[in-house]
Amino acid sequence: MTATALGAPAERREGRQKVSGGARYAAEYTLPGRAHAWPVPATVAHGRVTGVDTAAALALPGVLAVLTPGDAPRLATPEDATLAVLQSPDVPHRGWPVALAVAETPEAARAAARAVRVDYAGAPHDVTLTEGHPDAYAPEEVSSGAAHVEHGDPEAAFAAAEVRVDAVYRVPPLHNHPMEPHASTAHWDGDRLTVYTSSQGGTTVRSVLAQLFELDEDRITVEAEHVGGGFGSKGTPRPDVVLAALAARHTGRPVTLAYPRRDLPAVVGHRAPTVQRLRLGADRDGRLTAVLHEVTTHTSHVKEFVEQAAVVSRVMYATPALRSAHHVVPLDVPSPSWMRAPGEAPGMYALESAVDELAHALGTDPVDLRVRNEPGSEPGTGRPFSSRHLVECLREGARRFGWAGRDPRPRSRREGPLLIGTGVAAATYPVQVAPSTATAQALPDGTFTIRLNAADIGTGARTVLAQVAADALGVPLDRVRTEVGRSELPPAPLAGGSSGTASWGWAVHEACAELAARLAAHTGPPPAEGVEVRADTTGKADAESPYARHAFGAHFAETAVDTVTGEVRVRRLLGIFAAGRILNARTGRSQFTGGMTMGLGMALTEHSSLDPAFGDFTESDLAAYHVPAHADVPDIEADWIEEDDPHLNPMGSKGIGEIGIVGTAAAIGNAVHHATGVRFRELPLTPDRIL
Ligand code: MOS
Fold first, then answer.
1. What is the ipTM of this complex?
2. Which of 203, 507, 510, 520 stands the most exposed, by the fewest C-beta atoms within 10 Å?
3. Does the CB atom of residue 200 touch ligand 1 within 6 A?
4. For the chain, which domains are there?
5. Crossing angle of the two packed helices 461-473 and 500-520, in degrees rounded to 10
């Protein structure tokens, strides 16, 4: 191994531990005297708890306690209202926890939870998102800025356009469902709280618990050494960690709460459904003259969250007239939140489907149409791009996929009962970065230790941070250790918004560069206690950039549609990305193909719905909510083009955790149109819709 560790396909350092069972997850901390908790979810969609009868539950063997809204320990009012659990009898949505059973074993806790009798005063509820819902309003902001961006006269430009597409696309609610459910083990020692929790950001968990339990942060330890996925749902603390801490305080025992799979959708956020109207106007040469992207989505009555699906139209294509706008309807639904590429994933499904419809209307190749509308600067702001290689991604993808030989006519390829089609779509995801701290220590034996409270949620964060360190220190990779996932380490931001590696890596790079300089100024080995340098990128990583910074990509899909069964199978999926420097070829590829696989699920199988009568998600476990299995993903390939962008961070990297899911569903949907000649505008493309 040479000193150029960056970009190398280094293996995940914790891989062996994970596959051998040695890696411990939050529910696996078997502290002495540990008890287990099980939640009681509300069975009404709106109303209040009028009584909780715990007698039958408490009479069961091994049951220690049942916490209710009446007797659970009090919390300070959280900033995030979804964490105010067992604090009030109000029921804002079905599945909201209304009691918590604690027992010696998970089985006893489950039996006790089922024996708890809850009486409610029900109130009318509404969980159905419709366009033109009377309660819809225009929010001020979405997470990336203004909720409504407009320039030119989009209505007039659209009305005057020579060629028009006007279509409505629908994406249902979707669930994150990480392999490891949300789980926490909590333990009080006097007024010291220790939690082992499954989180994308332990630094936030500690500060939120400190506020809720009114403790100094130095009285709280949060450990999240191994995390079995999150996809956004573990980006903020969830009720599991609060309930485990409440139960541990109430019983005086360490308590583990592994939130039951079927109850997760109601308490950990979901991708809110979107109804997206796309209007594209173009001249006969295929130059866009108007882009109108209008999104209606839902939020809960607990807090406002807006799935910012229209923001992609501010980034993608040159147009003299643009409207990108959101409306949100508060319903009696569980609170939506982040799910991998929140906004971009459903937004690019709609936009890239509409662009395909426009290509078809014009009789233009869909790759060429995109190239023709490549903007010189970011359409929504006019800022220059720090780097943008979408065209190169499209061209390289087309070359490798064999796009040139494609007959553009729909229904032109048939194999017995199968109709075969190919489709393309673009991908984009913003570059986000946050300040972080990190320390780098040199030891007399010639090794180095990097420390920061980063979260390795399965991405290979430990490994890539060691690569960043080895590169900055100019030493072989095997001389660098990484310690992450503990709150006593230097504070670091969350693994979210595809910003983890850029944010943490920046601080690691700075600490290591400074350490290397210090070591170079001295002769002889470091003293016994080592030499340590601390870096803090506050003021750098959060500095406003004059550039529009986004990653881009292009997806190509080949599908076979069975005209007898209505089944759609993806035969080939190719993604080519431009995301700055790729810091680890192996784990990077895994991020891209993982995202694409999730996009395949979004296109073909993943579907949740809200039952209007009872107000709950009807597809709440993995038997009903279908994620892709290996057999669904026969030939999936991700690659990237070299992109040298000096306006990012010292590593030159953009985020790669989310862009893989963006656009995949559109490429598959466009391939299904090419196969069948039928335009389906509602996901997923299940046989009942296809037939
Ligand atoms: Mo990601 S949805 O920002 O964790």
1. 0.97
2. 520
3. yes
4. 15-22+434-536 (3.30.365.10), 31-123+179-229+234-267 (3.30.365.10), 141-174+270-431+546-690 (3.30.365.10)
5. 30
